Amino acid sequence: MSLRPPHRTVLVAAFAAVVGIGAGVWFFDRAATPAPSPSPSPPSVRSPASAAGIGDPLPAITLPDINGRPVDLATFGGRPLLINVWASWCGPCVEEMPALAAFSAAQPAGGVQVLGLALDTEEGVRGFLARVPVAYPIVLDTPGPTDASVRLGNRQGLLPYSVLVDADGRILKQKLGPFQAGEIEAWAAPERAPPAAR
Q1: Is residue 114 a contact partner of residue 136, using CB atoms and an 8 Å limit?
Q2: Is 92:160 a contact under the CB 8 Å cutoff?
Q3: pLDDT band per the 50, 70, 90 thresholds, residue 97
Q4: Is the peptide bond before 160 cis (omega within 30 degrees of 0)?
Q5: What is the mean pLDDT of residues 152-176?
Q6: Which residues form the Thioredoxin domain (predicted)?
Q7: Who's near 44: CB < 8 A, 6+ residues apart?
Q8: Are 117 and 93 spatial neighbours (Cβ–Cβ below 8 Å)?
Q9: Which stretch of DSSP H or E encloses residue 116?
Q10: 174 three-state secondary structure
């Protein structure tokens, strides 16, 4: 009678040993490799921390009007300021423009000022204003990750976007989306801004 061990048992044991050694090498090699760190944001993209919030001072922003003259937003100080960010290709922006124009025209001396901030081309804005004239001033900016809308707190980049600034130059309110009928008057009622977060 032969005393040789069965070949099948030897082969199964050898295979299990090889798999076990391979798994151990793989596991320890992975554990020694550091996990990848998140990629830093490209320098051209502003972090959300750079966007102004409620209670923050109005960022220093100077933009050209439709005639190319620079307009410093700080010159609107001393009275509340409603900044409405829009574009001629934005349907909801176009729909709320007559209500903003009526609100602006109804303001008494010392009342809320209205400023349109168009993320658009000069040609697009001029074409729109030829069809729908407004009396309040309009400034222009190029849409992008660091445009004035983003600096004013529009982290989502959607339009329309409105900001209410008090007479002392602090942001009181921020609104993403169009005004509903009759909403502007109540929304733009000036009140004191909370202290800026430290």
Answers
A1: yes
A2: yes
A3: very high
A4: yes
A5: 96
A6: 52-193
A7: 145, 146
A8: no
A9: strand 113-119
A10: strand
